[in-house]
Design a protein that fits this description.
0% strand, globular
């Protein structure tokens, strides 16, 4: 799953309070031979389409079964197809920097206690220039040290959206000034999207490969 050096992997293994599995699996992973025509089309789109070339997040296991939230998208394939398209756009076609994006995703993962999202994105966060110590601060619920004004705004905005469900007037005006209207909107959609995935993962609990 990970593509970062062994030294960083050892440091990640020492992180405290990393999200854990929510409980026993409730949803079985589906093999390619078990899929309906509609499910098979979505499976191919996720496993072999542009998404597979644009992300380090694990999509399929050695048996070709979709993993994590991607497995759950097969349960209602028409909805799943729309959901995966939104995710692909949020990861590849926004003006948020990779660093800001991964900060926001890990903030959601820590708040929602989503093991899959945390494990899937911690490596991308390191590749985007974050330090393991900063990831620990996200897990601790504080804004990491040594962030730019923009990245501090991303984390604080994501935290307020997650805890309050909105932004107060002063925080909205501050985020608007720092991020601009477009990137603020993109951040709000990103926090909502990964929160939705976290709820689906915690509730439907797909099997682990």
């Amino acid at each position: 799953m990970n593509s970062f050096p062994d030294q960083a992997e050892d440091s990640l293994a020492r992180l405290r309070d990393v999200p854990k599995a929510p409980g026993p699996a409730r949803t079985a992973l589906l093999g390619p031979e078990e899929l309906t025509a509609e499910q098979a089309e979505l499976h191919a789109t996720i496993a072999h389409g542009p998404r597979a070339e644009q992300t380090s997040v694990p999509l399929i296991d050695c048996e070709g079964r979709l993993l994590g939230p991607f497995a759950l998208m097969l349960l209602a394939p028409a909805v799943g197809a729309a959901v995966q398209q939104v995710g692909a756009v949020l990861r590849t076609r926004t003006e948020l920097s990779p660093r800001s994006r991964e900060l926001a995703i890990l903030t959601v993962a820590a708040h929602r206690r989503s093991r899959f999202e945390w494990e899937a994105h911690q490596g991308a966060a390191l590749e985007a220039g974050l330090e393991v110590a900063q990831l620990q601060q996200i897990l601790d619920g504080v804004i990491p040290d040594d962030l730019s004004e923009e990245d501090r705004c991303v984390v604080s905005t994501a935290n307020e959206l997650l805890t309050q469900g909105s932004l107060g007037d002063a925080d909205y005006e501050s985020a608007l000034r720092i991020l601009g209207e477009k990137r603020l909107a993109e951040l709000i959609w990103l926090v909502g999207y990964y929160s939705m995935l976290a709820v689906a993962l915690a509730t439907l609990r797909p099997e682990s490969s």
